[in-house]
Design brief:
This protein has 391 residues and is α/β, with parallel strands linked by helices. The chain has helices at 16-30, 77-84, 96-108, 131-146, 157-165, 191-196, 217-228, 245-255, 269-278, 293-300, 330-342, 344-358, 363-379; strands at 2-6, 34-40, 53-56, 58-61, 64-70, 88-91, 112-115, 151-154, 172-174, 204-208, 235-239, 261-265, 281-284, 305-308, 323-326. It folds into 2 domains: 2-178 and 363-379, Glycogen Phosphorylase B (Rossmann fold), CATH 3.40.50.2000; 181-361, Glycogen Phosphorylase B (Rossmann fold). 41% of the residues are buried.
Length: 391
């Protein structure tokens, strides 16, 4: 099959969406399929020419210099789609290039899929005014876009339920992004302690993700403060970058935990895998996730997980088996962390189960599910025309 992926973010930018796309692309290529990426250029980064990757002119985002906003215009797009003979268009955003991909699907009579990666209304806090109106608008745009597609892919049942609640009547397939299990084989479990000079008598909590308000990291720091009262040598490693870093560093100072929290910044992928391998426990406080891929990655490294009983992230944890689901309070969250750190037998049992359960979310199995969706859409041709989608 020849599949076009239209996305508003792509490598070298790092995010959960980009990671998901990269995983599916690699798995589908292994199976002999041709995947073409239509994504943004990054003027402030070096983007080498890559086969099957088409870059759109972009401008750096004012508040996020490493992120670029693509300009969804191209006089060559129609000819390019015809030349490479695309069979399916799969979009990963309801905006900009995702919307351009939807228009192209209608013009060429191709099946259109959309993966609903993000609860966009949860990001309204980045706008200074009219946040309630922006949330309503984002929900409306998401619903209308989904209803113009032939199939919507939800990364979790939580997203599937959300789409039904907001009025999406297009068929929805639940396909979580899988984990490349081979990536965690041979990871260096000593790298994290060596790199950041963490003593062997310290236990390590790990968070991986963007340092943004929606990730609820300030909550995590307050819960960590309480856990420190029981384990004074405990360390919290926060791997990732984002707009809240300075604010979070100041909060660490205010809470008196600055010496126990390590901000790594953005790390190359292999070093991030070493972080998973070297930690003792994965902690994830976000309540806005559609899936929480990092939870599956942590489990693949054998880390028990403590997360909040909310959003798609909770589906990645089997409570009492490979992790604990806590209520949304620093006291309850820290209590779950303390329980696992105190009970070595329980910890070892959950570590074993985490590795075993991660196999259910392998990249290979997710790719096979996606291929069945593609095949089903192609088998259903001829398709009825997609309703008009304004640019």
């Amino acid at each position: 099959m020849r599949i076009g992926y239209f996305t508003d973010s792509y490598l070298p930018y790092t995010s959960g969406v980009v990671r998901s796309i990269d995983i599916f692309v690699r798995e589908l290529k292994k199976r002999g399929h041709e995947i073409y990426i239509f994504g943004p250029d990054y003027p402030l980064a070096h983007c080498p020419r890559e086969e099957h990757v088409f870059r759109f002119a972009s401008i750096p985002a004012p508040t996020m210099p490493n992120f670029s906003i693509p300009i969804p215009l191209s006089v060559q797009l129609k000819a390019t789609i015809e030349r490479i003979n695309l069979e399916i268009i799969h979009v990963h955003s309801p905006f900009l290039l995702g919307r351009l991909g939807a228009v192209a699907a209608r013009q060429h009579g191709l099946p259109l899929l959309f993966t609903f990666h993000t609860f966009y209304e949860q990001y309204a806090h980045y706008l200074p005014l009219a946040r309630r109106a922006i949330r309503a608008l984002a929900q409306s745009v998401g619903r209308d876009f989904c209803n113009r597609c032939d199939l919507v892919v939800a990364p979790s049942h939580h997203v599937e339920s959300y789409l039904a609640e907001i009025g999406v009547d297009t068929k929805v397939a639940v396909i979580p992004t899988g984990v490349d299990l081979e990536e965690f084989e041979g990871a260096d479990g000593k790298w994290l302690r060596s790199r950041y000079r963490i003593g062997s008598d310290s236990r390590i909590l790990l968070f991986v993700g963007r340092l943004g308000k929606e990730k609820n990291i300030s909550f995590l720091l307050r819960a960590f403060e309480q856990a420190l009262g029981f384990f004074p040598r405990l360390k919290l490693v926060i791997a990732g970058g984002g707009p809240q870093k300075e604010q979070l560093c100041r909060l660490c100072v205010d809470l008196g935990i600055g010496d126990s929290v390590i901000f790594t910044g953005l790390l190359p992928r292999r070093q991030l895998v070493h972080c998973y391998a070297g930690a003792d426990l994965f902690v994830f406080p976000s309540v806005t996730e559609t899936q929480g891929l990092v939870i599956s990655e942590a489990k693949a490294a054998g880390l028990p997980v403590v997360t909040i009983r909310a959003s798609g992230a909770a589906e990645m944890v089997v409570h009492g088996e490979d992790g604990l689901l806590a209520e949304h309070s620093p006291e309850k969250f820290s209590a779950a962390v303390i329980k696992l750190l105190r009970d070595r037998s329980l910890y070892e049992k959950m570590s074993h189960c985490a590795r075993r359960n991660a196999e259910a979310f392998s990249a290979a199995s997710s790719a096979e599910k996606m291929l069945r969706c593609y095949g089903g859409l192609l088998a259903s041709k001829p398709l009825s025309p997609i309703p008009h989608l304004p640019v």
